[in-house]
UniProtKB/TrEMBL annotation:
Keywords: Signal. Residues 1-25 form the signal peptide. It holds the Pfam family NMT1_2. It comes from the Bacteria. Belongs to the bacterial solute-binding protein SsuA/TauA family. This is ABC transporter substrate-binding protein. Residues 30-245 form the Solute-binding protein family 3/N-terminal domain. Its main location: periplasm. It comes from Rhodoplanes tepidamans (Rhodoplanes cryptolactis). It is found in: Periplasm.
């Protein structure tokens, strides 16, 4: 056997052995989110390999409504969820679950949309408004905006449960008896193009608000702390990639592809997200305290101190290690 042939055979044998070696094991996570622009950092973490390089395989599910999201987390079908922070509070106060908010997100970018015949908020008297769930998050935003306009729930207007934002915008476009709802991008942009009337941004009326947040079950976090820190590191890196001006065109194309949006809609949604998301998706405690104040006002039940619902130790470790 010649030396060249021997080297070739050795190289082929080495390649065969390498090819038959088991791949590096990855930790699988199933997460649930609501459809929307707020998922851009997660899209980035997947498309840029930020999860994969940390040994994570993340399967992202889209929530049809907040009940499924909360129930799935409580039952262990999802390990991490991203949704309005009040959903985590609801798990604690309504279901007795030990849920903890571990990372912030955006301020919701929510706007109140109404049917074209509504000239002012007072015109919603006697009408029906659409919500995801009647006792959480953006429903409380809607009730508060109407309260400030002098309208009381049930007495002055009715509430109909419709589901997630993507369902509510479809419902208002199809059913004129549904007079109002809260919408965020890209659905707010679609509503405006479809002829629904924009009555303004929620935070301009109710003050700072911590909308999107990532939350988990405390027990799962304790038992999987290393995995959670890796996940949060990838998420924050996704936030940084998304907000880097040099990546703007790529980020717009990414969200357009993922959400099946025209590029101009994706571009407008991107600009809104950049104004609504703080650096590194940090939790806005003042905004979160307002979330709790709204829950207390519209349920009549006091909440615990804001710190009781939050555990940022994993987030802090993630930031420190980046």
């Amino acid at each position: 056997m010649t030396r060249v042939r021997s080297l070739t055979l050795a190289a082929a044998t080495a390649a065969l052995i390498a090819g038959s070696a088991p791949a590096v094991a990855q930790t699988r996570l199933t997460i649930m989110v609501f459809a929307g622009m707020q998922n851009l950092p997660l899209f980035a973490a997947q498309s840029q390999g930020l999860f994969a390089k940390r040994g994570l395989e993340v399967d992202m599910k889209i929530a049809p409504n907040s009940d499924e999201l909360r129930n799935g987390l409580a039952q262990g079908r999802f390990q991490v969820v991203h949704a309005a922070s009040d959903n985590s509070v609801a798990m604690v106060e309504m279901a007795g679950a030990d849920a903890k908010i571990v990372v912030g997100g955006d301020n919701g970018m929510n706007r109140l949309f109404v049917q074209p015949d509504i000239a002012r908020l007072e015109d919603l008297r006697g009408r029906t408004v659409a919500v995801d769930a009647p006792n959480t998050a953006y429903a409380f935003q809607l009730y508060e905006i109407l309260r400030l306009a002098g309208l009381e729930r049930e007495k002055d207007y009715k509430v109909q449960v419709v589901g997630a934002t993507m369902k509510r915008v479809d419902a208002l476009m199809a059913d004129k008896t549904l007079a109002a709802t809260m919408l965020n991008p890209p659905f707010s942009l679609r509503a405006a193009k479809g002829g629904l009337k924009d009555m303004g941004e929620a935070t301009a009326k109710i003050g700072p608000y911590q909308a999107s947040a990532g939350f988990v079950l405390a027990k799962w976090a304790r038992e999987n702390s290393d995995t959670l820190v890796k996940y949060l590191s990838a998420y924050v890196e996704g936030v940084r990639w998304s907000s880097d001006p040099k990546n703007k065109a790529a980020a717009i194309k990414l969200v357009a592809d993922k959400l099946k949006l025209p590029e101009e809609v994706a571009a407008a949604g991107y600009d809104l997200l950049m104004t609504g998301m703080p650096k590194d998706a940090a939790l806005d405690m003042k905004g979160f305290e307002n979330v709790l104040a709204l829950r207390t006002r519209h349920t009549g039940k006091p909440t615990r101190p804001a710190a009781d619902y939050v555990d940022l130790s994993y987030y802090q470790k993630a930031i420190a290690g980046m």
